[in-house]
Write a structure and sequence with these properties.
By secondary structure, the chain is of the alpha/beta class. It has one domain: Alpha/Beta hydrolase fold, catalytic domain (Rossmann fold), CATH 3.40.50.1820. The protein has 14 helices and 13 strands. Strands 3-4-6-8-7-9-10-11-12-13 form a 10-stranded mixed β-sheet, sandwiched between helices. Strands 1-2-5 form a 3-stranded mixed β-sheet, with no helix packed on it. The model has no long low-confidence stretch (mean pLDDT 95).
Length: 473
């Protein structure tokens, strides 16, 4: 077959056939964020002449992955034109196909749209047009700066969705059937988009996989800007930060985000600035924002590996650490005593629950009955050395994407991951993206528990109680 050419609003793009579907890679949806645009809101891409090659992936905002070895393959591609996206379509000559727009994770400072795990071929097989988008990361996206709009990375998400609205029909998709989805920071992006007036009408369904919300306090964002400026030794202004190149800003971001034991403590993230994100997500959901059908959930042991920091803790030390996560004092004392001989187990689970599982339940409760929310818990346990018995962060992605034979997947799952579970989860996601329900009733009480073999037991039966300002009420 000849190479497919599609005429988008900014110009024609040439993709490539890969068996029964076509890929169009590295399509810019906005001008490159360089020079005066580096810390500005994204600007619509100027038209180009001729036919643009779209057969190789474009540059990534990621300078380097979060760690030397990441669960998800996340290549870093140099270049300034980082506001680009990839379109995978079953047939660019089709019409009215449902559309999945994918926002990658990576702690808001890493990750990329070009991972082999996000290749849309498996969804194309089921008649879904798939888009994976890049966006600015780290300080360029989230640092509060004088002379620049806040939440520039969130404005990039909106710009990508506007591009989808204006162009996806040319690739066979239906702009009125768009589902936005993402995992980890990308799942947090989905929740932020629900709270953003600028995003209203740009998507019609949403899916948050292991959604993690960042800093939602503008005072905290201002304090982080001062801390960042001190580390960078320049004022927190767009003009002054613009004198530092991307790699230099990333180095400062790493210093700011250095966690205990060489880990990463995500600090630069979307926050409620009163404009782009007018109010904290849960507050917005309670007030009636973001009422589109939502599929939401987490794994059972997202960040339980954090429990290793608790080795040797006394009951008092464990209770103090649990309280620091938002566990009420009396409950923290009880749990610390019950797990006196294994403090890492309860602390690790508390980190998972405080960051992910409690948030998922809180979102369902905040939305009420105004729009359906289907909740799931992924509970299949890895067989990989060092992770046996854990349903950890990112482990569910190759199941949702039905990509158990993908790059580095077996390093996460171990040998012989259950294909029937991947088949069932992928089918549920396709059904949801196509406009139906995923196969179980909405609501917390009816949440499905993904295991192999299948179970009728609901998820979220024992979530550690957390009281935090963003989840209270």
């Amino acid at each position: 077959m000849s190479e497919p050419v599609v005429h988008a609003t900014s110009g024609a793009v040439r993709g490539r056939w890969r068996g029964p579907s076509a890929a169009f890679l590295g399509i810019p949806f906005a001008e490159a964020p360089v020079g005066p645009l580096r810390f500005a809101a994204p600007v619509r891409r100027s038209p180009w002449d001729g036919v643009r090659d779209a057969t190789v992936y474009g540059p990534t905002a990621q300078v380097e992955p979060l760690t030397d070895i990441t669960t998800i393959p996340e290549p870093s591609t140099p270049g300034d034109d980082v506001l680009n996206l990839n379109v995978f379509t079953p047939d660019p000559g089709a019409a009215g196909l449902p559309v999945l727009v994918w926002i990658h994770g990576g702690g808001y400072m890493a990750g990329c749209q070009n991972s082999s795990w996000y290749d849309g071929a498996t969804f194309n097989r089921d008649g879904v047009v798939t888009v994976s988008t890049g966006y600015r990361l780290g300080a360029e996206a989230w640092l509060h700066l004088e002379g620049a709009p806040d939440n520039r990375g969130a404005l990039d998400w909106v710009a990508a969705l506007e591009w989808v609205r204006d162009n996806i029909a040319a690739f066979g998709g239906d702009p009125s059937r768009v589902t936005v989805a993402g995992q980890s920071a990308g799942g947090g992006a989905v929740l932020d988009l629900l709270a953003m007036p600028r995003a209203k009408g740009l998507f019609h369904r949403a899916m948050g996989i292991s959604s993690a919300l960042g800093d939602e306090d503008p005072a905290r964002a201002a304090a982080l800007a001062r801390e960042f400026a001190a580390l960078a030794d320049v004022p927190a202004t767009a003009e002054d930060m613009g004198q530092i190149d991307r790699r230099g800003l990333h180095a400062v971001t790493k210093r700011l985000s250095a966690g205990p034991g060489g880990g990463v403590d995500v600090k630069l993230a979307p926050f409620a600035d009163g404009d782009v994100i007018p109010s904290p997500v849960l507050t917005a959901l309670r007030s009636g924002e973001g009422h589109v059908p939502l599929l939401l959930g987490a794994t059972s042991h997202e960040f339980n590996m954090a429990g290793g920091a608790a080795a040797g803790w006394s009951v008092t030390e464990t209770a103090h650490a649990l309280a620091g996560l938002g566990v009420p004092a009396a409950e923290a004392a009880r749990l610390a005593a019950d797990y006196a001989d294994r403090p890492g187990e309860i602390f690790g689970q508390a980190v998972t629950d405080a960051t992910f599982r409690h948030l998922a339940v809180a979102v369902v409760q905040a939305r009420g009955a105004a729009a359906p929310t289907w909740l799931y818990q992924f509970d299949w346990r890895s067989r990989a050395p060092g992770m046996v018995g854990q349903a950890f962060h990112c482990l569910d992605l190759p199941f949702w994407w039905d990509r158990l034979d993908g790059e580095r997947v077996h390093a996460a799952t171990g040998d012989d991951p259950p294909q029937r579970l991947a088949t069932a989860m992928h089918a549920a996601m396709v059904a949801f993206v196509s406009g139906g329900d995923p196969g179980w009733p909405a609501g917390v009480e009816q949440s499905t528990l993904w295991q192999d073999p299948p179970t009728s037991e609901p998820g979220y039966q024992s979530v550690i109680t957390v009281v935090r300002p963003d989840t209270a009420g």
